[in-house]
């Protein structure tokens, strides 16, 4: 291809001689191509001088029409190159601002997920603080010297929960909704997630007898239950964990209705999730304290002591019950009983 | 616009590349008749050139109209190109830099938008009219 200068000089000569629009259109295309090829505007500054000198050399008439046509060529080149140069600059700004916006968006998204996850965790940890403070206050006689302190603890924990709830709501990490869920299938999904978190789990067997029966629950919290129980087993040196879901009749005792005169609640259909390990197990004393928050049988740094307390809190919020069977050297079995949805039960009896 | 000022209108049917040149010549002649500066003449011709090319590329053909109006303090040239193509699906995207549906540079409409005083796009499948108003203050 001929150099830009040669082509421009030739087009100007042709337009001055003929006045044909075609040559002006070609000059505009030349300018666009030059910008496309990355030529700088100042590199084109002397093009027109070359074209005018060529006109003189070729004996063009020195009159108003020649000047006017030569100027039309120059204007066509300048307008075209300026417009396309500006479009290129805009495009570069557009691309870089879009890339910057995308990076910023990704960082914010990651930060949001991190904050959402933390707020959720801390919120769960605060539940037993609030709950146990209230229980202790109920048992505490009026005027007890510790009462005032405990009320402050309770109030602060409740306020902290409120702050976290607002934060979660703002970030659309709203409190997970209780939903009627097919429990066996949900256990499978949660286990798929939990087992992907670590490569170091003990050998795991899973037996799900009932896939379809539904219970009212929050699936994310089921995941938390399984994660906590499996971590407990792992830290108790278990070599294997057996997880099972089966259907069983169960009597759901209501808190506070365990007095001698209280009528026994009816037996109703339930699902039992059992997490059994062959780890160190616990003696009776440890077992009793196991569901108390911050109690831990593990060496310092290995556990927060919150595992079973958190599990207990979640199970309670699902209207379920928790039992633990354990003996030193014999491992531990944690069973969670959840009532099967009555609508499901009714549908089955029809 | 001032209703008293007469509008002189010329229309050019655009089918082939030569017709784009005719449309350019028409608007150039109008600019010269008004005594516009050479650089303004180049600007309005660039507007016409881009709109006429768009009609050829996207609709295969079109019609270019040039309207001229002289007001006491300024001159106005209206370049209007109409085609029967598929229409512009997303006008704001078409006006943004770097957008192109035909694999070209995609500089056409943004360039026109930059050069014109105002740009009106009326588009739907089967009929698209792009009108660019160019204005030049009288010396």
TrEMBL record, chain A:
EC number, UniProt record: 2.7.13.3
Looking up SMART domains in the UniProt record yields:
HATPase_c (SM00387), HisKA (SM00388)
Q: What InterPro entries does the database record attribute to this sequence?
A: HATPase_C_sf, HATPase_dom, His_kinase_dom, HisK_dim/P_dom, HisK_dim/P_sf, KaiA/RbsU_helical_domain_sf, Sig_transdc_His_kin-like_C
**What is the superkingdom listed in this entry's lineage?**
Bacteria
Q: Name one Pfam family in it.
A: HATPase_c
**Every Histidine kinase domain range:** 117-342
Please list the reactions this protein catalyses: ATP + protein L-histidine = ADP + protein N-phospho-L-histidine
MF GO annotations? ATP binding; phosphorelay sensor kinase activity
Renumbered to this chain, the signal peptide range is none
- The entry's protein name is histidine kinase
Q: Which organism is it from?
A: Rhodoblastus acidophilus
TrEMBL record, chain B:
Q: Which GO terms describe its molecular function?
A: protein serine/threonine kinase activity
Q: Which Pfam families match?
A: HATPase_c (PF02518)
Alphabetically list the UniProt keywords: Kinase, Serine/threonine-protein kinase, Transferase
In terms of InterPro entries, this protein maps to: Anti-sigma-factor_SerPK (IPR050267), HATPase_C_sf (IPR036890), HATPase_dom (IPR003594)
User: Superkingdom, according to UniProt?
Assistant: Bacteria
Domain (Histidine kinase/HSP90-like ATPase): residue spans on this chain: 39-138
List each coiled-coil range. Answer: none
Q: Write down the SUPFAM superfamilies for this protein, in alphabetical order.
A: ATPase domain of HSP90 chaperone/DNA topoisomerase II/histidine kinase
**Annotated PANTHER family:** ANTI-SIGMA-F FACTOR RSBW, ANTI-SIGMA-F FACTOR RSBW-RELATED
Which named protein is this?
A: Anti-sigma regulatory factor
